Amino acid sequence: MTAVISVRRATLADIPAMHRIRLAVRENVLSRPDLLTQDAYPVELTRDGRGWVSEEDGEIAGFSVARRNGNIWALFVDPPREGRGHGRALHDAMIAWMRAEGIRRAWLSTDPATRADAFYRAQGWIAGEILDDGELAFELPLD
């Protein structure tokens, strides 16, 4: 059975579910989870950018956040719901918003040789250099 996925703009009320998902991931795990608290999300969702959540069976299954400067701050799917299309749906919502905002280049970094690395390559992102923190830089021209 194919999952029915819906994507909507994230609200401040979604932050607890978003943070739970961020802490539950098996790859790109935070080395210092105590440094990312729920207090960081409101600025990302309102001032610095916009966020989206994907839902399945009435529950939040994933989230993404894009910043107005072109940076992808987050794209994470709850581990039990991986592989069902949430990541792609969230990615597409972010990219559509960034284009509508006139952002010409998106960029992010992620751990190399992970599913995220493969996911972004499959979406057309261009891999760049390994950064000082060991993450792989990616960019995506939007024009």
Task: Tell me what you see in this structure.
By secondary structure, the chain is of the alpha+beta class. It has a domain at 6-102: Aminopeptidase (3-Layer(aba) Sandwich). The chain has 4 helices and 7 strands; from the N terminus they run E-H-H-E-E-E-H-E-H-E-E. The protein has a 4-stranded antiparallel beta sheet with strand order 1-2-3-4, sandwiched between helices. The longest helix is centred in the middle third of the chain and has 15 residues, at 86-100. The radius of gyration is 14 Å and the shape is globular. The model has no long low-confidence stretch (mean pLDDT 94).
Task: Count all strands and give the number.
Answer: 7
Helical percent range? 25-40%
Give a quick account of the main beta sheet: strands, pairing sense, barrel closure: 4 strands, antiparallel
Class per helix and strand makeup: alpha+beta
Which topology of the domain at 6-102 does CATH recognise? Aminopeptidase
C-alpha geometry: globular
The CATH architecture term of the domain at 6-102 is 3-Layer(aba) Sandwich
Measured between the Cα atoms of the first and last residue, the distance is 37 Å
Strand content: 25-35%
Write the SSE topology.
Blueprint lengths: L5 E4 L5 H10 L16 H6 L2 E8 L2 E9 L4 E6 L8 H15 L4 E6 L4 H8 L3 E5 L5 E6 L2
Which key phrases capture this entry?
143 residues; alpha+beta; Aminopeptidase; four-stranded antiparallel sheet; three-stranded antiparallel sheet; 4 helices; 7 strands; globular
Please provide a brief summary of the model:
The chain is of the alpha+beta class and 143 residues long.
